[in-house]
């Protein structure tokens, strides 16, 4: 009898001290965009986004991403009141910072008791070795980077298209939505391959692709990296004078001398009295009026692209939200090479993204033309 009791107690102690099958959270290992491998105790339920527009990437994989977000920063860079409202209405998402790293409130962030902070190289400099990341590590709060490169960094930025699979795999692991990530990447690759076939052998067309199109300023042209890389993938090329990595300030005389075939401006919902109001849910007529106003700046009537009515505009989200880069590629390719890409339909692609992937649909206009 005593032996049976001792045996029972031994087995009971082992059961209590050992892992319970099927009970408790499951740890996950994630490799972020900075190449860091981080272990999370469980799929996170209280995420802070230091770049609020990351919710658009989450939205491609998760049916209700805002439910997992307790705080965010840089909401202005979503650049759409329509999308900001779609993701924040009904949720208490605290603002922990504005558009620059020094505005991030460490105390406010910690008070939210996050189980994950998703940062970028710009909003948390150092890619894990900076003061913010180190302080969070001391507190046991894991940090992952959704971007490892900022416009303050030296060297060549990675291609957004090459980085996209790693980004989606990272979010697929974080959200425990790996199958959804693979489905999106398969869809994306099929669209890219189709576009590449149409553009094979096409001569790149010189394009004035303007970063931050403002009514009272000129002339900021895309550089070689990021925006410039995407322009090249769409069958275009930047200005000869825009040789810097990110953006180049071009004098009007130089812009006129370049003789660009096409002019692509940018706009959005944020501060849209100073630039074209192009973006989800905004009136298309207002967007087009904004483009007209840009072409009315001093000397713009002399631009080759303006004379030939090759003037277009995009919502910045098509560039800054990597999963939406596909839409920019398709619409820009149609503008640059209409003879080759007449059957490429970015409106159809947006409809499919809304139907198959996005938690909240993205409305137009995301692009306009004169």
Characterise the protein shown here:
The chain is α/β, with parallel strands linked by helices. It folds into 2 domains: 154 residues, Nitrogenase molybdenum iron protein domain (Rossmann fold); 178 residues, Nitrogenase molybdenum iron protein domain (Rossmann fold, 3-Layer(aba) Sandwich). The chain is 37% helix and 15% strand. The chain contains 14 helices and 14 strands. The strands form 4 sheets. Strands 5-4-3-6-7 form a 5-stranded parallel β-sheet. Helix 6 packs antiparallel against helix 7. The longest helix is centred in the middle third of the chain and has 22 residues. The radius of gyration is 24 Å and the shape is globular. The termini are far apart.
Please outline the helices and strands.
Layout: H1 2-17, E1 28-31, E2 37-40, E3 47-49, H2 54-59, E4 69-73, H3 81-88, E5 94-97, H4 106-111, E6 116-120, H5 131-138, E7 143-147, H6 160-174, H7 178-199, E8 205-209, E9 220-222, H8 227-233, E10 236-237, E11 247-249, H9 252-258, E12 262-267, H10 284-295, H11 304-307, E13 311-315, H12 317-320, H13 325-336, H14 346-356, E14 367-369
Parallel strand pairs: 3-4, 3-6, 4-5, 6-7, 8-10, 8-12, 12-13
Antiparallel strand pairs: 1-2, 9-11, 13-14
Helix pairs in contact: 6-7, 7-13, 13-14
Kindly provide the radius of gyration, computed on alpha-carbon positions and rounded to a whole number of angstroms.
24 Å
Name the helix and strand elements from N-terminus to C-terminus, one letter apiece.
HEEEHEHEHEHEHHEEHEEHEHHEHHHE
The largest pleated sheet is described as: 5 strands, parallel
Question: How many structural domains does the protein architecture include?
Answer: 2
What is the topology, as strand order, of the major beta sheet?
5-4-3-6-7
Pfam families: Peripla_BP_2 (PF01497)
Organism: Shinella granuli
Protein name: Iron complex transport system substrate-binding protein
Keywords: Signal
